[in-house]
Amino acid sequence: MVQMNDVKMVYGNTEAAALNGISFTINEGEFVFLVGPSGSGKTTIIKLITGELSPTSGQITVNGFDMQGIKRRKLPKLRRTLGVIFQDFRHPHQVFDIIFFYLLDILYFLLCLFLTSAHQYLLQVQNPHIPIVSC
Fold it and tell me: Residue 19: how many CB atoms within 10 A of its CB?
């Protein structure tokens, strides 16, 4: 779960806020698209959620981690609980294609593993002195 409550983010010594008064909740298992024009704060929100930045003010909790008090050494553990797809993959069909081809690779690997095992089994039946090599 991701919760932002009245978050403000100001970069450097400027008075202009990248984010001001942002509040939202993303529940466990939700798939969320963060879209908006250039400069609207999308990247800032992602950097706050992943711990790359700390907010100027407000409260952020990500999967039980308080982002204001999180230690640098805990960031890898936090990041393993998140999935972020960056703007190069902004269209749903592209995400589907990536997942589809990943699953296709897994199926191909399993098929090769099965055929290799079957072939080695047949070799051993014909000649029991040939050792079976497992993948």
Answer: 18
Instruction: Give tens-digit pLDDT for 58-81.
Output: 999 998 888 988 888 888 888 888
What is the model's pLDDT at position 72?
Answer: 86
CB 64 within 8 A of CB 78: no
Are 74 and 65 within 8 A, CB to CB? yes
Decide: helix, strand or coil at residue 51. coil
Question: Residue 29 and residue 83: Cα distance in Å, rounded?
Answer: 11
Q: What are residue 133's DSSP bridge partners?
A: none
DSSP 33: -
User: Which residue in this structure is represented by tokens 């008075």?
Assistant: 15
17 burial class (0-12, 13-18, 19+ CB within 10 angstroms)? Answer: middle
Query: CA 98 from chain center: how many Å?
Result: 14
74 contact partners, CB below 8 Å, separation of at least 6: 65
The two beta strands, 65-66 and 17-26, are unpaired
pTM of the predicted structure, to 2 decimals: 0.61
Specify whether the CB–CB gap between 34 and 46 falls below 8 A: yes
